[in-house]
Amino acid sequence: MNRVKCNYCGKEMSGFKRLKFHLAGIRGYVTPCEQVTDTVRETFHKMIETSGQKRGRSQDSSSQSVSPENGDTGVATDKQDLLSSKAHKKCIGRFFYENFVDFSAVDSPSFKAMMTVGCGEMRLKIPDPRDINGWMLQDALREVQDHVKRIKDSWAVTGCSILLDAWVDQNGRYLVSFLADSPAGPVYLSSFDVSDIKHDVTALRSLLDGLIDEVGVHNVIQIIASSASGWVAELGESYSRTKQGVFWSVSVSHCFELMLMKIAELHSLGDVLDKLKKVTEFVNNNPLVLKLDRDHSHGTDVTVCSSEFEFVMPYLTLKSMFKAKNHLAAMFASSDWNEEEEDITIFKLVKDSSFWETVERVLKCTSPLINGLLWFFTANNQHVGNIYDTMDVIKESIANEFDGEELCYKPVWDVIDDVWGKHLHIPLHAAGYFLNPAAFYSSDFYLDSDVATGLISSLVLLVKECPIQAKISTQLDIYRLGEDCFYEASQADQISGISPAEWWAQNASQHPELQSFSVKILSQTCEGASRYKLKRSAAEKLLLTRGMSHGEKQHLGELAFVHYNLHLQSCKAKLSEETVLQDIFVGHFVKPPKDLEANQVSSLPSRFLGKERTRVSDFPSLLVSDSANRMNLSMDIREHGSWVDKKKDRVKCNYCGKEMRGFDRLKFHLAGVRGGHVTPCEQVTDTVRETFRKMVMEETSSAAANNRVDKVQMGNSGSLSVFSGLGESLTADTFVMDIYDHGVIVNKKRRRVKCKHCGKDMFGLHRLKRHLGGNGNACVEATKQDLRSNGAKKWIGRCSNENRFDFSAVGSTGFREMMTVSGGKIPDSCDLNGRMRQEALKEVQDHVRKIKDSWAITGCSILLDAWVDEKGRDLVTFVADCPAGPVYLISLDVSEIKSNSNALISLVHGLIDEVGMHNVIQIIASSASGWVGELGESFSRSKEGIFWSLSVSRCFEYMLLKIAEIHSLGDIVDKANKITEFVNKNSVVLKLVRDHSHGTDMTVSSSELKFVSPYLTLESMFKAKNHLADMFASSDWNKEEDITISELVNDSSFWEIVDRVLKSTSPLIHGLLWFCTANNQHVGNIYETMDVIKENIAKKFNHEELCYKPVWDVIDDVWNNYLHSPLHAAGYFLNPTVFYSTDFHLDQEVATGLISSLVHIVKECDIQVRVATQLDMYRLGEDCFNEASQADQITGIAPAEWWAQKASKHQELPSFAIKVLSQTCEGASRYKLERSVAEKLLLTEGMSHGEKQHLEELAFVHYNLHLQSCKAKLSEEQ
């Protein structure tokens, strides 16, 4: 029999399932336990409640429902279904860990809808946040640890580079994350807060040396820093001086940034960019001007250009503008131009030849640098074997730009040499140049003393054994002469199309010492951690561990480890994919310029000619304007071609007039891509060509993916073993749609295929694609299925907008796995950021309109959320709150006006006018200090009909802070933390405590309101004090250890102070927690709540005034200065639950508050009189209030609802009462707004009007979806 016994009361019952109900105190299947502790009872109660909610939302899941009669667990109907359900949950977990999405997003309505609509029903169970944060995280941790171990095993062959990512967070902390990078993939190591040791180079060295020891000194080849200033620079100088076998360098992208900054200083670039900004803003912000400009430039936009590297954007914009200068001049000179006074400045600037001469000079200095950087970051060019040659080519290109005039190019060379010498260059680069066969066996290779000494230095530092050094030296001579195995391997066809490290792995097995040395050097990168775009917020959260238990810290560490390594794994797969795609498409996109002389052609890179040399006198242009990027999202092929014969599917190019079959061929024609069975268009503009090239590349990426593994994997059976698995990290191969899933070959010889959806027979797979895609004779059955697919896409977009995960997350491995197992079709990031966002915007606007319509009845409160971001900007977000739901209004940067009260008041008045003066009842601030406090004082003095108050949670925080000062709480909490940490860190002690406390954990108690956590912990500790004392007094306890903790637990004076603190604070905290639950946060409750809190504090001290009076004084001080407003008094009077109770007390403050609210909210004198008359009936309980004032008519209904239902006979008073009682006392913190969205929104310098509008729409959609979800969740809890 499955009989179990309760450890608390000894009762026996059938199965652990019944025991859960017994311990939770839930009647129905078993009697509640009377002896279980409160903590255990609440835990099991929540567990059962959560389990019931999950069963309710997924009744169609594969597992059976569970009841106590079934024993301790439910039995799955099908083992395979159970396994698939677990796999499905793991995929969802991976998505959350990889993209660092808040676990609570799994409960959002849009996430549930997204997971449901893809397959028409909820086939599999969605895990709850506890699953994701529990067993699923542990499973993911084990998988990631296995993945990391495989990478670490490869370091013995390839070595690795330590990448250092340092930054200062919003709290002013100096943080750093360390990665280890190698060909097998990057690995996250750890994150540190170095704030306390940033000026101590010895301590920093010790920290880094410890990390290197952990990785393995023999594995670490170099350290690449993300910065060349501050503590990072000091640490770098220290490492560079010691020469301890590890090289130090600064990331190549940051060095290029430093070069460009110094060059900008030479040419006063700031002034040039200011003028440039005026022109671009004038053109882009004026639709008529923009149209004229496009007419004269054949579709080219004068826009701010974008790049993966923000620091190159001004230069790309400058280049785009310089190309368009003649078009701009032609526009201003045309008859279409209507010359106005305000445009003369722009006109003169465009006509100013000296301005364009300066621009041209800047471009001659910077274009080779930028083109070189962008080339370096394409495909597989970032290894140390390329940087030496790249820098030489850049310098030669700059000299060529100035026609060899030393006076012009020498200052730029000096800047490049300065940064190269101080920050970038290390001996490893020289060794890489020598050992790179593509450079070494070319006619341009040049061996100088710098290269020779760099090679020697690398050999001495990396190879410690003298005999091996000697062997390598001998083998280097064979390599130099191209003898032995190097004879054939040095031929051009053996070098091209293969990375240097692969070349050594495949061709030098006869010389293992040199091979090993070369592979280790050429496997190192020149770029830092910025390449992987780590989410720093994960590390910031990880390093905020003050007050946490050992278990909580460990949990956060595991979460960061899983997140970062999944993210890095996904990045590696994506970079590998891009490398293969570039190899496939480079023949289409890059071709030698037609006007090159024969001697110039010989110097072109192998990508042009298939030769071994990577050197190039002029890098291929990789600059594509932002207009092309944006056009890629919205450009319609039908705007560039027209129908000739719809029946025969014939179209004509609008540029050259060529006719062809279908718009698909027209895309290839316009893109200039041969292979689309059509010749390239010679007359199309560069912008349109580049846009359609990108489009074609994306559309054909699925074909490229089929060959990805073969392309990415390095080596063969005879090569070094580590290279056989470099391409085996997770990729998106399994998610590429296969045409054979939708059609079957009927006749292979005649190339006849049949559609699986409708059965139609046709010629060739290309026709099947068109048939399924909706072109020509479209498939009706497939279209029906697409309706569901479009629904899934819509909900994916909504989920992305609501939970604010980056649009690029849809390309992550975790997201694709998750959607594949749920049956949803995955949109790309362009869909999310384009059409789907516009659809979401329309829906959100409709939702917001409905809420705004309700303001006429309920009014609204403006919630003000102010903060200072990590850039030192004073930002604020405004939300309008009412019973129908909260609405995001706007975010603003008030840095420049924060000291100007008049400007701030004008700003708020403008916002109130927009909402409607008659709709706004009060403003609730998030702070009482700084510019917010001054603004509040100004509003309170003005008495302009709008009340100002501070959020109730912030006021309670102030009260607790002041009470803490009275009792020296800091010292008490420190002692309490020592006890909890001692217990929770020691498993033996923890078991002893649990034995003596019947299962109670000594943990740090948590709350949604962080500032109450120390008090909750103190309360938990005080309840367990006797159990602790029993444990220390028991025979099981080893008296010798931890005498300090034992003395503290037995110190009666310590517990007396704790008792006094809890008497002062517990009523406050429990009053606040009650106030913040369900529907209690309206103004009708706060008056009574504060009175009850004060009475409870007096009771705790047995009404000894000397004890409770100081606490009352603190509460009264905060209440009077920050919280109380006349609206609260009016709410107290108009709340029928309070008013018709025996405890109601009408004093002068309540009466004057009611009158003040009436005068401020109701402006018409005749209505004021009617309200006053009806208030007398309400007071006396006459007329309709007679029956409505009975207890059974009041309980279980919100005060505002009571007035709406019971007092409709008197229109004026209910209208006034509803407006008062519909207001909240809590601020914006209740909704946990993601401030990073507003921070990004307010970084618009240099953006075009369209880009700013796009960001505003995105913020509007995200915030309002988030607020909508919060409202739904709060209603559900209620």
UniProtKB/TrEMBL annotation:
Q: Annotated region Disordered: where?
A: 48-78
Spell out the Pfam families in the cross-references: DUF659
Q: Which InterPro entries would you find in this protein's record?
A: DUF659, RNaseH-like_sf
- Report the domain of life of the source organism: Eukaryota
Annotated DUF659 domain residues: 127-279, 827-979
Q: What is this protein called?
A: DUF659 domain-containing protein
Species of the source: Thlaspi arvense (Field penny-cress)
